[in-house]
UniProtKB/TrEMBL annotation:
InterPro entries: DUF306_Meta_HslJ, DUF4377, HslJ-like_sf, Hsp_HslJ-like
TM region positions: none
Leader sequence residues: none
Name the record gives this protein: DUF4377 domain-containing protein
Chain ranges of the DUF4377 domain: 134-208
Domain DUF306 as annotated: residue spans: 30-115
Pfam family, one: DUF4377
């Protein structure tokens, strides 16, 4: 009987210890709403960066009794519209609500009284190859599996624009704005026949400029 109680006590202590530390790493929403960008969180030491498709939010974070407590957050100042604005406000409210944190391996769940969001851990940015690319202010028609619009990119301003058929995770370009991005590139093991063998993830927006037509 004593050994059983000791085991139960040890399990409880282990659970509490897991909940008391910040879930460090890069996290991406597992099932974003249709037509929206996945929410992302980047938690390192006592800092958190959050993104829902428009502005990037940054602030201090700590754990208190299984809850994520986020301080006042600084934010970039892009004007958000429609779904992006609603998603950004929802993420702000979630982080301000001191959500309950549950982590099971590479899955992270943040829950408040009204909402619950599940995130999947992403590869460490330190392991990726660093690239710098320019992105044109407008997409161009292209044909993949079906007709679509592709980003126009180049690595140097002296080069012509080329079509990029993939996606840059965490990047939501606004029409009429030219960008220079710092990208992290990762190899994709065993990609499907019609998919890229490389995965691009936004590391930083280095420059952005409104371009007059």
């Amino acid at each position: 009987m004593n050994m059983t109680r000791l085991g139960i006590t040890a399990a409880i202590v282990t659970t509490l210890t897991a909940c008391s530390s910040l879930p460090e790493g890069r996290w991406q929403e597992s099932t974003p709403a249709a037509g929206t960008k996945a929410m992302t969180l980047d938690i390192q030491k006592d800092r958190i960066s959050a993104y829902a498709g428009c502005n990037r939010m940054m602030g201090k974070a700590q754990m208190e009794g299984g809850h994520l407590v986020v301080g006042n957050m600084a934010t970039t100042l892009m004007l958000c519209h429609g779904k992006n604005a609603k998603r950004e406000e929802a993420l702000k409210q979630l982080l301000a609500s001191k959500p309950v944190v549950e982590q099971h391996g590479d899955q992270l769940t943040l829950s408040s009284d009204d909402d619950s969001y599940t995130f999947i851990k992403q590869p460490s940015m330190e392991d990726g190859k660093t690239l710098f690319v320019y992105v044109a202010p407008e997409k161009a028609p292209c044909v993949g599996v079906a007709p679509m619009e592709c980003l126009q990119i180049r690595e140097d301003k002296s080069q012509p624009w080329t079509l990029y058929y993939g996606t840059i995770e965490g990047f939501a370009p606004e029409p009429g704005i030219a960008y220079r991005l710092r990208i992290k590139e990762f190899d994709v093991p065993n990609p499907p026949a019609d998919a890229s063998s490389k995965r691009w993830i936004l590391d930083m927006i280095v420059e952005q400029e409104v371009v007059t037509p």
